[in-house]
Amino acid sequence: MADVTSGHHLPNLRPDGKPLHPSWLPRQRRGVTPQMIGRYPDYDVLGAMDTWDGATRRVVLARLEEPGPLRFFDASEEPTLRAFCDIALAQDADPRIPVAEMVDAKLADGEFDGYQYAGMPDDRDTWHMVLAGLNETAEATSGAESFAAAPIEDQEFIVGRFAKAQLCGGTWEKLNVKRAWSVVMRGALGAFYSHPWAWNEIGFGGPAYPRGFMRLGGVANREQFETPGATAEDPAGAVEEDHLYG
Which UniProt keywords apply (predicted)? Predict the structure, then answer.
């Protein structure tokens, strides 16, 4: 595991402005995390599931079930959807949280967030258009037949431009690109951080009902079911430091 006291893992403190690959973190020894790495290698949120009520336990454990086939996105969209989710969430090895399937299920079931940006199409249409736009940009950038077929470096470049609302032409002209990024990342991040593997990765204590949380006041005050991280670094403080140089 790398020494992080110098802050060399923080994007804005690195010469290239890119984050250090998360492989610097230790291998997970208990439970599952994306790519089996994380700051809390001896933590498994499922160890506390006996403290959850039955309904909560059923909801959480259902997220660990093997996902079924996509129902909203068609076969031509699936590779681009998966490639985009992997790049945007830095999931480049198994085990992966099935974000594509979770986003697909939400859209197929019509479970929306209760609001829609003014001037933007329905979120379902936004997703379709974003995937089409990514394919068009990949063809223009590298001559690839689709975003999923483009080299990883090109995929990262395109997603970086998308995040900065710098994509234009073709399908992108029909969208507010900044808002489109917000829509798809809201869906992808919401899916990712609702999964117990992500909770293990960030040391999240899981559902607070009916157990509740008693020890408040910072990282030094851990609940009895929580474990210390692999480093003494306060992640929140590190992020604040990184932003000072951003």
Answer: Oxidoreductase
User: Which residues are CB-neighbours of 8 under 8 A, at least 6 positions away?
Assistant: 2, 14, 20
Structure tokens at 214: 């008693």
CB contact burial 195-220 (16+ within 10 A = b; e otherwise)? bbbbbbbebebbbeeebeeeeeeeee
173 vs 81: CA distance, rounded Å: 20
* Residues in Cβ contact with 76 at an 8 Å cutoff, skipping those fewer than 6 apart: none
Q: Is 132 left (phi over 0), alpha (psi -120 to 50) or beta?
A: alpha
SS3 assignment for 97-134: CCHHHHHHHHHHCCCCCCCCCCCCCCHHHHHHHHHHHH
pLDDT tens per residue, range 50-68: 989 999 999 999 999 999 9
Q: Amino acid identity of 226?
A: E
Tokens of 77: 């969209």
Question: ω before 210 within 30° of 0 (cis)?
Answer: yes
What are the CB-based long-range contacts (under 8 Å, 24+) for 12-17? 12/242, 12/243, 12/244, 12/245, 12/246, 13/241, 13/242, 13/245
> Residue 106, Cβ neighbours under 10 Å: how many?
18
